[in-house]
Specification:
Length: 369
Amino acid sequence: MAAKSLKSLLVAVFSLVLLGFGGSVKAQEGHKAGHESEAEAEFDAGQAILHHIADSHEWHFFSHGDNHFTLPLPVILYSPQRGLSVFSSSRFHHGEEVYNGYKNEHDHIVAVNEAGQEDPAVKVYDLSITKNVAQMLLGGLLLIIIMNSVAGKYKQHGAGKAPSGLQNAIEPVITFIRDDVARPNLGHKYQKYLPYLLTVFFFILINSMIGLFPGSANVTGNIAFTALLALVSFVVILFSTNGHFWGHIFWPPGVPLLVKLILIPVELLSIFIKPAALMIRLFANMTAGHIVILSFVSLIFIFGNMSTAAGWGFSPVSMAFAVFIYVIEILVAFIQAFIFTNLTAVFIGQAFEGEHAHEEAHGHTAQAH
């Protein structure tokens, strides 16, 4: 029964994806047809895919003809020359109009002059609540609600009562992160870092799962999002270091002098390579999954441009592959959240690794006496 329900859910979700993607494609083709010849008004799969995974100043759900079903978001701009401007993204009318001296060109807001041309003399700082930012705030709110709900049950019933409902689903994950991620990598200090590791894991997981719904933003596939998470982990790693760690960086023990001259720059670079690896790994994997799904959907319209019969005939094949990748993406969301959290724990543990050896040596000395 559960398998049938999951299958029906996936088919329904993918159908909505297909509907929204197809509506967007028709809107793009209709827009091109008004400015170009029919021979030039062909479906551009690359442009359509990049449009779906990119950030935006409005939440676009789907299009039907010339009608766009969107949710406008707040635009917050600051210019040293013009001051602060706050208004709704609907003022741009999907990038077709200029408002208050600004224009939205392919989700990039620029200042324009009276003639409607871009004014390079005006510097613009975009502080808007974009689709990615709005969804990230939604993910953070869901994280707070879920964790407060679980914590409230523990406060109400205590740890002696068997978990139920949402608590029953969250508790095994928390136990897994504690026993298989925090303890093996952080030793006796695992309780100090466990709240951060749990926050990172669930924050990535929630945003990745929301990103699989039609019309949602690909937050975990945004390089700014993953860069910020990597930066926070980098700061935590640096504050966890000790003298033993920096001693091995600037003067590796037991290594010939000439080798040290080569090894020291490599060790210094490794400090920055670790957070960069966290950033790129999450960004690349989550972006790739969305691109693959949208590529399979695009094949329907590519074949449809050649022949209507070919488009309809290839639709079942395309849908089968896309649903399969969609199921894989659900698994990837959990795996990438785990990998980011586990690598963060590994890097933090390496930062104070010398303390373990010192404590073990001290313990053996005490036992000998």
